[in-house]
Write a structure and sequence with these properties.
This protein is of the alpha/beta class. The protein folds into 3 domains: about 110 residues, Rossmann fold, CATH 3.40.50.12160; about 240 residues, Alpha-Beta Horseshoe (pyruvate-formate lyase- activating enzyme), CATH 3.80.30; about 60 residues, Nucleic acid-binding proteins (OB fold (Dihydrolipoamide Acetyltransferase, E2P), Beta Barrel). It is built from 12 helices and 20 strands. Helix 6 runs parallel beside helix 7 and helix 11 runs parallel beside helix 12. It is globular. The structure holds iron/sulfur cluster. Iron/sulfur cluster (SF4) binds next to helix 5. Its cofactor is [4Fe-4S] cluster. Keywords: 4Fe-4S, Cytoplasm, Iron, Iron-sulfur, Metal-binding, Ribonucleoprotein, Ribosomal protein, S-adenosyl-L-methionine, Transferase.
Length: about 450
């Protein structure tokens, strides 16, 4: 009679980067013959992958640990909050082990100690990696099967004053380009149609490795954003760049977008547009150059969609500086924009800055900012009415197929709602040409474009 598989419960909290960590750990558990179970009752041990980015995420993570302790009692904690073990031990002294983000080896050691893997001659045939933290196997996907996050580096060399990621995750550590390309290749072989490149700072990719050259498919590639994009462009699926820092060499990848080798999409957080506020944020302050660069990108690739995020109500932000930000929106005509009212994060150096903006003023500025951008986004989407757009179907919902065009990232941007999607027999993960017939400030509406 076959032996029962040791069973692990898994709770995954946090951002897409934490999700990638969860996928890696789940992959390794599966490779070693553990069964992943969906309830505390059925689990022999529970792993909680936590987030510690803002205070509400810390509270949510501590609650999740508490629930796992109460329901199961054998709990291993990993992820961002693991960087503050004393805080976890104070609330939940009984947890079995604590490790930080990306520390797959420690998680696996803790799981082995609590629940030794079962010897299985069939599973033992699965090739083992020499370094567990260096996995490049196809992951067990928590995201829908047809898109996958591809994490190219960890940590960040910048020190933006509102952010504590460098103190939690350390300086930039890039994965060698051949390893990333092999992982991407396997994901595509496993059915992935869209790769979402993520990191804390995608444009800095490889600087820590001095842009080391590696070989993939018989060709040399530098560990550098442009070469990585060229390699990914060989895979014949959609590749989308996230978290690109506004360095000049971002210009290098825009021609690849114009050639169709990379999606014409840049997620590039600008954060503000007043040079003084940007200096206080410890970010590049040459706003004229940013606008000039955006103009150049659009010359090279006229259809490029630019997504950005901004912080309003940063300490010391005056009415005039906020107006500068609104003027920037008018000039830059960005496609998609997210914004946050500044909120102090424990440990961030910006908390020591003078002249905090009152909460009511922050909220009022946030509302004005979003209203201004909504008009811009709506006009940008309206301009697509009457065109035919290549879309990737995410889900079927009644009569509708919910899809995304090349200009929409999953979770953060809008959708293309295909009115006759069910009737047309569409399925998630399928590409389809859609005739765009309507728009609002978030979404596009259309029908499958049938050839005559
Ligand atoms: S670039 Fe991003 S991750 Fe790095 S310090 Fe700035 S906000 Fe934080």
């Amino acid at each position: 009679m076959p032996l029962a598989h040791p069973k692990v419960g898994f709770v995954s909290l946090g951002c897409p980067k934490a999700l990638v960590d969860s996928e890696r750990i789940l992959t390794q558990l599966k490779v070693e013959g553990y069964e992943i179970v969906p309830s505390y009752d059925a689990a022999d041990v529970v792993v909680v992958n936590t987030c510690g980015f803002i205070d509400s995420a810390v509270a949510e993570s501590l609650d999740a640990i508490g629930e796992a302790m109460a329901e199961n009692g054998k709990v291993i904690v990993t992820g961002c909050l693991g960087k503050r073990p004393e805080q976890i031990r104070e609330a939940h002294p009984g947890v079995l082990a604590i490790s930080g983000p990306q520390d797959y080896a420690s998680v696996m050691r803790a799981v082995h100690a609590a629940l030794p893997p079962r010897h299985d001659p069939f599973l033992d045939l699965v090739p083992r990696r020499s370094n567990e933290a260096d996995t490049d196997a196809v992951g067990v996907k928590l995201t829908p099967k047809h898109y996958a996050y591809l994490k190219i580096s960890e940590g960040c060399n910048h020190r933006c004053s509102f952010c504590i990621i460098p103190s939690m995750r350390g300086d930039l550590v890039s994965r060698p380009v051949d390893q990333v390309l092999r992982e991407a290749e396997k994901l595509v072989m496993g059915g992935v149609k869209e790769l979402l490149v993520i990191s804390q700072d995608t444009s800095a990719y490889g600087v820590d490795l001095k842009y080391a050259e590696r070989e993939w498919r018989g060709r040399a590639y530098a560990t550098r954003m442009k070469a990585l994009c060229e390699g990914l462009g060989e895979l014949g699926v959609w590749t989308r760049l996230h978290y690109v820092y506004p360095y000049p060499h971002v210009d290098d990848v825009v021609p690849l977008m114009a050639e169709g080798r990379l999606l014409p999409y840049l997620d590039i957080p600008f954060q503000h547009a007043s040079p003084r506020i940007l200096r206080l944020m410890k970010r590049p302050g040459a706003v004229d150059k940013v606008l000039e660069r955006i103009r150049r990108w659009r010359e090279i690739c006229p259809e490029i969609a630019i997504r950005s995020t901004f912080i309003v109500g940063f300490p010391g932000e005056t009415d005039a500086e906020f107006e500068e930000l609104l003027d920037f929106l008018d000039e830059a005509q960005l496609d998609r924009v997210g914004a946050f009212a500044y909120s102090p994060v424990e440990g961030a150096s910006a908390n020591a800055l003078p002249d905090p903006v009152p909460e009511a003023v922050k909220q009022e500025r946030l509302a004005r900012f979003m209203e201004r951008q909504a008009e811009i986004s709506a006009a940008k989407l309206e301009a697509k009415v009457g065109t035919v757009q290549r879309c990737l179907v995410d889900a079927i919902d009644g009569e509708l197929a919910l899809a995304r065009s090349r200009f929409d990232a999953p979770e953060i941007d809008g959708l293309v709602q295909i009115q006759n999607g069910f009737e047309a027999g569409l399925r998630p993960g399928e590409f389809v040409d859609v005739e765009i017939m309507g728009s609002d400030e978030h979404d596009l509406y259309g029908e499958v474009a049938f050839d005559d």
